[in-house]
């Protein structure tokens, strides 16, 4: 995949997110991520396709793609600790630490598949999520794929209580502090549908996932296509 210094999207300097980055750096060696890659969704993708893993963590999903024979892989993440671990586990792969969110040093319409696994949950602000989806839109070729996996808002007592507890401080029901130093969000399925409004949904599936703190949760996955003609970034 070719990258270039063009980064047209204005964004948030990562230094503004110091506490989240410190948490994620520490998590690089202590947490395990588990959202499953449903490989049949990628059966028709050429093995040389340019695949970008946004919020790649320690390279788990890229490793799974590598095992499927894909060989044009690149991972981006805000956490230098995650990228350091990814590089040591996968020295032949290319990893980039993001400086300004969500700007990617990739030309417009240069990527065939973006993988976005368990990243929306790490971005508390709806506007920041929309900005990210707009940037992914920019780099995806017309007709290219976005594969999103994230966590669904749950209605059990524990989740209801914590979402209610933090709803006022974060201005959104579903965003909460985990108790070990970070802020996460779980979203209803219609939020993901509106986030992906500028894409054509090809398929969805539900999965059971273990969260990074070891709890069982419900994952929701979307396979979506960037429409063949360019269009506007989705808004609220
Ligand atoms: C729960 S982990 C998932 C990692 C990987 N996608 C996987 O499934 O194995 C979330 C990752 O997203 C990164 N991250 C969080 N917020 C981000 C943002 N705004 N932009 C880019 N990466 C972000 C974190 O550093 C972390 O590595």
The level 1 CATH classification is Alpha Beta
Instruction: Give me the secondary-structure category.
Output: alpha/beta
Number of helices: 6
Helical fraction: 25-40%
- Overall mean pLDDT stands at 89
CATH architecture: 3-Layer(aba) Sandwich
* Cross-sheet strand order for the largest sheet: 4-3-2-6-7-11-10
Any key phrases for this structure?
binds S-adenosylmethionine, 236 residues, 27% strand, seven-stranded mixed β-sheet, alpha/beta, Rossmann fold, 28% helix, 6 helices
Structural overview:
The longest helix has 14 residues, at 126-139. The strands form 3 sheets. This protein has a 7-stranded mixed sheet with strand order 4-3-2-6-7-11-10. A two-stranded antiparallel ribbon has the order 1-5. Strands 8-9 form a two-stranded antiparallel ribbon. The protein is α/β, with parallel strands linked by helices and 236 residues long. It starts with 11 loop residues before the first strand and ends in an 11-residue tail after the last strand. The model is unreliable at 2-9 (pLDDT under 50). Helix 1 runs parallel beside helix 3 (80-89). It has helices at residues 18-30, 60-67, 80-89, 126-139, 157-170, 189-195; strands at 12-13, 51-54, 73-77, 94-97, 100-101, 111-117, 140-151, 175-177, 183-185, 200-210, 216-225. Helix 2 links the parallel strand 2 and strand 3. The chain has one domain (12-30, 46-225): Vaccinia Virus protein VP39 (Rossmann fold, 3-Layer(aba) Sandwich), CATH 3.40.50.150. The protein contains 6 helices and 11 strands. The structure holds S-adenosylmethionine. Residues 24, 33, 35, 55-57, 60-61, 77-79, 82, 98, 101-102, 117-119, 122-123, 212 line the site of S-adenosylmethionine.
